[in-house]
Amino acid sequence: MFSKWIERFFVWLRDGVAKGLVRLHFTPTSLTLLGAALTIAAAVPLAYGPRWWPLAAAMMVLSGACDMLDGAVARLGGRQTRFGGVLDSTADRACDVALYAGAAIYFLKQAGGQSITYPLLCFISLANGYLISYIAARGGEEGVPTRVGFWQRGERFVTLIIGLATGHLTTALWLLATWPFLTVLQRMLILYRALAVPGEGRSAERPGLFSKIAGLLFWQYPRGSLAYDIHAGLIIIILIVVPEPLVSLFKGLVYG
To answer: What is the pTM of this model?
Structure first.
């Protein structure tokens, strides 16, 4: 599938760059902190408005590159530690807060503080991301793998980048405030089937009709599958083509 080819290319490119960084004595921690600093700094041009959004998107792309490279440098340089994973996850959460805060500040300034529509969408988008990660962490503690669903952090991050690069941040926020909640429900359904019944739970049972329907609606197919490619393509098309009707529809709520 198309996404699998892209993934293979980026893995090849990432490992090649990572080997060079290892030779230059870069550390995984330095890359993690550099990526976090770039993302947090991107919140500043994001808050200043559409004229500066391409700069914010470019900074996020560089940050994403650091996020890809820190783990590869740790692995290839033999410097993997458990703390590195904790630092990486913590930095991701701090970066998410900074980005959505920057977006909320921009919309609050535009509306003169009179509308909370888009600031609220920023809050809900942030909450969706936190819930997705939290459920995965709790599932890990319970011994139930729940790292499924389309809307993992990479997909949410790229959606923001495309929204900023095209000037369609409002559409990105509508997507991030609504669609990822399906991943929240999907992961909770997995935990329910595994943990809700005393004893061995329901994980080995045949999925019921609701579970089958949920599987279709929630797009639980992995990266590299045709369903994933269709889903990703649909989101990109929405971000590029649909935004003007959305902006027109909700403009009165934001600008009074």
So the answer is: 0.85
